Amino acid sequence: MDQRSDGGAAAPVRPSGVSRRGAGLREVVWGADGFWGRRQAVNAAATFAHCADWMERLGWLENFDRVARGDVTDERAGWEFADSEVYKLLEGIAWELGRRDDARLAAAYGSLVARVVAAQDEDGYLGTAFGHPGLPPRYSDLSMGHELYNMGHLMQAAVARLRTFGEDALVAAARRAAEHVCREFAPGAREGICGHPEIELGLAELGRATGERRYLDQARVFVERRGRGTLPVRPLLSDEYFQDDVPVREATVLRGHAVRALYLAAGAVDVAVETGDRELLAALEGQWATTVERRTYITGGMGSRHQDEGFGEDWELPPDRAYCETCAGIGSVMLSWRLLLASGEVRYADLMERTLYNVVAAAADQGGTHFFYANPLHVRVAGAEHAGEGVNHRAEGGVRAQWFDVSCCPTNVARTFAALHTYAAMVEDDVLTLLLYSPGSVDLALPSGRMRLEVATRYPDDGRIEVSVVEAPREPVALRLRVPAWSHAAAVTDVSGTRTEAAPGWWEARRTWAAGDVVVLDLDLDPRIVWPDPRIDAMRGTVAVERGPLVLCLESTDLPAGVALEDVRIDATGAPRAAGDGAVIAATRRREPAVAPAAPPFASRRPTDPASGASFDLPLVPYHRWGERAPSQMRVMLPAVWEVASPR
Ligand SMILES: [Zn+2]
Questions:
Q1: CB-based contacts of 599: which residues, under 8 Å, 6+ apart?
Q2: Which residues contact 116 (CB under 8 A, 6 or more apart)?
Q3: Are the CB atoms for 89 and 411 separated by under 8 Å?
Q4: Does the model's pTM come out above 0.90?
Q5: Distance from C-alpha of 99 to C-alpha of 236, rounded to nearest angstrom
């Protein structure tokens, strides 16, 4: 018997007051030969087990057993937020089981859930770091204790299970936890908020999935309560770090700890959409726009500062100190997806694609067992080969590691990849929109009937995307294709064989479709030079090279013998040429330094830079696979020469 509660249409984020929805887990199937389908297959085959093994080995799972047995002590393993990694893994597995049947994975899910729910208190509280003999009291450290954050992730995992399967022990535990939170943090009761937003997302989505309005109301309470300076602030931190400096609806830009800011904004969009709060939604759209304009890297990465894992000021985007935490990239995708469903605006899908290819895809290696935590745009010293056995305490981003002391990113990647294909298409009434291009099939129920498509493409290695109709309703349907913002020479060949230019945005054709109809979108994947805004001081004098949705980078692995990474200058007047999945661009080498090596790096006369010497071909590779061949130096922003002096 099929117990799936939502047919194949289940997916993360199902706003109830909006006519737009993303594809369901079984409505889009990506082939394992495509860029994203391959990542999903690896995620299922390797990443879930990898995460579970590490959490078993480190005692993060046993934390639940110890609470259940009553023998927990302050010797407990892991940070206060270790519980959330188990919940994110459960969420990922639940989406995966919604995508396809897998008896072994289902068994693993069942045994993990049994251990989690055994640790729940009578009154619904669930947590292994507080509130039991030998541990600090419940909610005694709202700033950094992560108790509500953890339970928010429990709720998101339960939403995945409820939508794909139905009621089970995990869903029941999440309902009890939500009841506990609603009682404990009701207006007039404990008037606190969690230092790390997430409970807002968890309650809002659980409210949608269960129909319990009170959960959504409590999410709204948490959103409105924030920004009033109520969280105790430790030395070196600030109200801004916690987004407790300005109320959400008054803020104009994302600030403070990037993941916190993005999760809060995503949860606030859920609240705004469900309550019809247009003012709040408009504030969040404005925050997104300003943040993307002034505080976002070319990769889509967010977070300029390592010190507090935070956003910098406007235009503070140093390539070498870019933090760009993997979880911030995922948070950005979560936020953009919600704003896309709320508004239908293509700019949100464009940023999602940029961030998915250049942050999320970069974060995990091709084998699905090594991860970046930080995703800087410039690494000056090649990372040491990681020994592989121990936990990586550094999160600098030189070499992908199997696991981290703070290991939020691997499980976040796992749950994102499991449901990633639900972002590939969007339905609104009789409009079917394709958003992300990877080979596979689409099978969606429209009001007038079923629409089945086959998508054939080698994107992003090739720009041709062929969409074939397999089955269509008898009524007219609008088929829309996203033409990315970076695209300069896109063309669509329609059913009649007529080829026309397609401007960035939505290409749309409304007709009564028939099996065998074919539409082809051709995207121009010639590599292109991209200049940063002159207000980004740390990037002045440099350019980047992009190809389709991919940001390219220079790796020291590809440098000619004797050329140092910091001495390369590229010819920004020339045109890069496609090569493999990357590009080749003409480059020169900086002249020998005019000052003695021991001199200070400043001089009162103009240096001999820019470059001289024979030009050579410089290979650039997609940023998402940098560091995979060997530890290397790397840079995305390349010092450029735009006027080469004519030889005399
Ligand atoms: Zn993380």
A1: none
A2: 64, 86, 87, 90, 126, 154, 170, 173
A3: yes
A4: yes
A5: 44
Tell me, what's the pLDDT at 385? 64
Distance 503 CA to ligand 1 centre (A): 36
Query: Torsion angle, CA of 612/616/622/627, rounded to 10 degrees?
Result: -80
390 forms bridges with which residues in the sheet?
none
∠ CA 544-547-553, nearest 5°, is: 45
Ligand 1 geometric centre to CA of 408 (Å): 4
Q: Please state whether beta strands 638-641 and 568-571 pair in parallel, antiparallel, or not at all (unpaired).
A: parallel
Q: Which of 539, 630, 552, 634 is nearest to 585 (CA)?
A: 552
Task: Tell me whether residue 133 is exposed, middle or buried, using C-beta atoms within 10 angstroms of its C-beta: 0 to 12, 13 to 18, 19 or more.
Answer: exposed
Q: Considering only CA atoms, which of 612, 615, 526, 539 is closest in space to residue 575?
A: 526
- DSSP string for 400-431: -BS-BSS-HHHHHHHHHHHTGGGGSEEEETTE
DSSP 525-538: ---EEEPPPTT-GG
Give residue 391's pLDDT. Answer: 77
**CA–CA distance, 320 with 41 (Å, rounded to integer):** 33
Cα(341) to centroid(ligand 1), Å: 25
Q: How many CB atoms lie within 10 A of CB 407?
A: 26
The answer to whether 442 and 427 are in contact (CB under 8 A) is: no
Please state, in angstroms and rounded to a whole number, the distance separating the CA atoms of residues 526 and 547. 6
Measuring CA to CA, which residue among 24, 21, 20, 22 is closest to residue 8?
24
From ligand 1's centre to the CA of 310, what distance in Å?
12
User: What is the separation of C-alpha 604 from the centre of its chain, rounded to a whole number of angstroms?
Assistant: 45
CA of 290 to the centre of ligand 1 (A): 23
Return d(Cα 550, Cα 579) in angstroms, integer.
13
For residue 1, the model assigns a pLDDT of 33
In whole angstroms, what is the distance from residue 306 CA to residue 395 CA?
A: 9
CB atoms within 10 A of CB 545: 24
CA-CA distance, 285 to 133, in Å (whole number)? 45
**Whole-angstrom distance, CA of residue 164 vs CA of residue 160:** 6
For residue 597, what pLDDT is reported? 61
- What's the rounded Cα separation, in Å, for the pair 326 and 312? 17
Cβ atoms within 10 Å, residue 62: 19
Q: For residue 2, what pLDDT is reported?
A: 38
- Rounded Cα distance, 117 and 127, in Å: 10
CB atoms within 10 A of CB 581: 18
Identify the CA nearest to 526 among candidates 466, 581, 577, 461. 577
Q: Which residues pair with 617 in a beta bridge?
A: 586
Query: Rounded to an integer, what distance in angstroms lies between the CA atom of residue 126 and that of residue 154?
Result: 9
Cα of 33 to ligand 1 centre, how many Å?
28
3-class DSSP state for residue 543?
Answer: strand
CA distances from 29 to 32, 43, 55, 437, 442 (A): 9, 15, 30, 12, 7
Q: How close is the Cα of 205 to the center of ligand 1, in Å?
A: 21
Residue numbers of the chain with a pLDDT score lower than 50? 1-3, 644, 646-648
Side by side, the strands of the sheet bearing 431-434 are 20-22, 425-428, 431-434, 477-483, 505-511
